[in-house]
Design a protein that fits this description.
Length: about 260
Amino acid sequence: MSGSWLFNTAAGALLLPPFSLILLCALGLGMRRRCPRFGLSLSVVALLILAAISTRPGALLLVAPLERMNTPLTAPAALGAQAIVVLGAGRISGAPEYERRDVPGAVALQRLRYAATLQRETGLPILASGGMPDGAPVSEAAIMAHSLREDFVVPVRWLDERSNTTADNARYSAALLRAAGIRRILLVTDAIHMPRARRAFERSGMGVIAAPTVFVSAERATAADWFPRACWLHDSAYASHEWVGLAWYWLRHEFFFE
C-alpha cells in the first residue's frame, strides 16, 4: 500500500467535508458550557454549511469554477497531439458479476469512454495511467487497458502502473512518452480534476491539450437540486480536494521545492 496515498486519504478525511464539518459541529457542542453562544453558533454554522454543500447550487459554488478552467474539446484531430493519456479514477474490487475481477469505477469508466471516442476520431495511441495505491494485486492501468480493449475495442500502447497520485501520473507517464519521442498529448480526466492534472503534466514537461469529460455543472437543473443529497455532497468534497491540491501545487512551486 502506498504511504503517500494513505496519508492523502487520511488527511482528506480529516480536513475536507463532510467529516471536517462534523468535527466543527462537535467542537461547538463541546464548547457550550464555557462559551454557550459561540459554541451553539459554531455548531449551527457547520450544519448549515454541510446542508448547503449537499445541494446542487451549493456544490456548484465549488465545482463550476474548476470546470470553467478548461472548455470541452473541439476538433481533436487538428490540434497536433501525438498521444492520448487517460488517468485512473478508482476501481470496483472483486466484482462478482465479472468473476471477481477488479473493474473500472464509475468515474474511471466515463474517462475511458471519452478516451476511446478520441482514439477513434484521431487514431492516436493511448497511455493508461494508474497504479496500485491501495495495495491491490492488479494496477488500475491494467484494468483500464483491459476495458478499453474488450469493452470499447480500441488499442492501448503504454501502461503506467506505478502512479499512486496525480503527480505520479504526470511524472511516470511523461517518462514513458518522452522515451517514445512524444511531447504533446491529449489529457483525459474529468473536468473537476483537469486543472490540477494539467498543471502536473505541464510541470513534467508535456505539452498538454486538455480533454475534459464529466461536466457536472452542465447537467440539466431540476427542482430536486435544492434538496440535500449524497451525490452533491460527494461533488463538493471532490471539488474541495481539488482546490486544496491546486493550492498546494502553487505553494510548492512558489515557496518550496520547484
